[in-house]
Specification:
heterodimer; A: mainly beta; 5-stranded antiparallel sheet; B: mainly beta; 7-stranded mixed sheet; 48% strand
């Protein structure tokens, strides 16, 4: 049973528009959430994180929103750029360093 | 340059053979991890180690073995007991399992293992 789900395997967005990537989780013990970005044949790189005491965290073009009651988080990228095209993984942790990853969403930003 | 290296990038193995994947880090991180990536399944934890000479099984440890004799190194052996070893293997490290908020995990470039 997947505890972290990314239900959209792919997303296509026009350059300059907003990209919204979604992630749902089932484990109520998860208290810390992260987004990783991955290019083909490379390791994931950390993008942004949020703890359960917040509902929003912003870093430049990237904003993560957390809705604990719905067990849902989302990553917003505004404005989207072609270089953002990659696979995005959300990950969750019940505190400590053990992460559970979602299946990933492939984002394609068209020029 | 500080970072994590994995070698080789591509690895081919005949069915029934054991193979060892290398992971080295010079970030002075205490914790190291091995993940496996399969299409549509994200990253699944195979083994992790919080300190030298200690390691723990992750979610899918069957058919794999590890060692942590040095802080910098965490090799993964894929044994012949692993029924479906063809996958992309990722090694990661982080400062420590502090018991608090997760420290950022830094990933290596990965090794793609193909069983012929």
């Amino acid at each position: 049973d997947q505890q972290v789900k990314q239900n959209s395997p792919s997303l296509s967005v026009q350059e300059g528009r907003i990209s919204i990537l979604n992630c749902d989780y089932t484990n109520s013990m998860f208290d810390y959430f992260l987004w990783y970005k991955k290019y083909p044949a490379e390791g994931p790189t950390f993008l942004i994180s949020i703890s359960s005491i917040k509902d929003k965290n912003e870093d430049g073009r990237f904003t993560v929103f957390l809705n604990k009651s719905a067990k849902h988080l989302s990553l917003h990228i505004v404005p989207s750029q072609p270089g953002d095209s990659a696979v995005y993984f959300c990950a969750a942790s019940p505190w400590g360093n053990m992460l559970t990853f979602g299946g990933g969403t492939r984002l394609m930003v068209k020029p | 340059d500080g970072g994590i290296t994995q070698s080789p990038k591509y690895l081919f193995r005949k069915e029934g053979q054991n193979v060892t994947l290398s992971c080295e880090q010079n970030l002075n991180h205490d914790a190291m991890y091995w993940y496996r990536q399969d299409p549509g399944q994200g990253l699944r934890l195979i083994y992790y180690s919080q300190i030298v000479n200690d390691f723990q099984k992750g979610d899918i440890a069957e058919g794999y073995s590890v060692s942590r004799e040095k802080k910098e190194s965490f090799p993964l052996t894929v044994t012949s007991a692993q029924k479906n070893p063809t996958a992309f293997y990722l090694c990661a490290s982080s400062i420590t399992e502090s018991g608090g908020a997760p420290d950022t995990q830094y990933f290596g470039p990965g090794t793609r293992l193909t069983v012929l």
